[in-house]
């Protein structure tokens, strides 16, 4: 079985044919022009997909087209209700695609698509119950229960980044305060790194990144590995909040694994050994219940495409 998987991002749209073994064929991509009406972007996309299918002679093999998209979606009708990143309002993606392509179209949240990809073909391949967190500009979430994506009523569930880990804490983009996103996103890590740098003029972090405006998610990790106290404190706090968020998901879902993706998840053993220890020590009934493994994602930028296509695979 082959499906087309499409991953819509703020800068570009990427897609590929994916088979039911998770194998990704040649990728196509197009820019997502800021300010261009969504109808025009999607009509261009439909033409690219049509050409792609005919170039590779896949007309009779494609079972459907899966699309992962950021924003608030009506997954039943294939409509993007609102996407802040893309500037799209009530955009009927499925209907527009079907003007040119007669295949079934399925739409899901971008974080859900990535979670399904990792669950079926990546870090979660061996497990049936998985929670995925994407640590980027925000914190995206995906829930896989018994091998299936759980999307909640009308596909609006799975907003794992907006569970509160600190009542009256840091302001979140969603309007509430103290959400996990406000502590565990790359944005939050960078904010705390900058604060620590301003308060510690001697910190190694200044050597690693002399220009405060260029500080990224890696600076604190690099300095902490060299023993820098200020960086270690930033990361201890980061791991504490991320760990508390993860503990909530462990205690609600008791998954076999929690998969982390996004730039921060590339931090390697420094992050994962501490995070696994933090969670292991605090799990509800930790001595009597099976361990929840916290793992880095494996599919990188392909996870969204693979997961979107996998909406059509059993
Ligand atoms: Zn929030």
Characteristics:
single chain, 314 residues, alpha/beta, Nucleotidyltransferase, domain 5, 2 domains, five-stranded mixed sheet, 10 helices, 13 strands, 36% helix, binds zinc ion
Describe this structure in words.
The chain has two domains: 2-117 and 302-310, Nucleotidyltransferase, domain 5 (2-Layer Sandwich), CATH 3.30.420.40; 127-297, Nucleotidyltransferase, domain 5 (2-Layer Sandwich), CATH 3.30.420.40. The chain is an alpha/beta fold and 314 residues long. Helix 5 (186-199) runs antiparallel to helix 8 (229-253) and helix 8 crosses helix 9 (269-282). The longest helix is centred in the last third of the chain and has 25 residues, at 229-253. The strands form three sheets. Strands 3-2-1-4-8 form a five-stranded mixed β-sheet. Strands 11-10-9-12-13 form a five-stranded mixed β-sheet, sandwiched between helices. The radius of gyration is 20 Å and the shape is globular. It has ten helices and 13 strands. Zinc ion binds next to loops. The site of zinc ion has 6 residues, from loops.
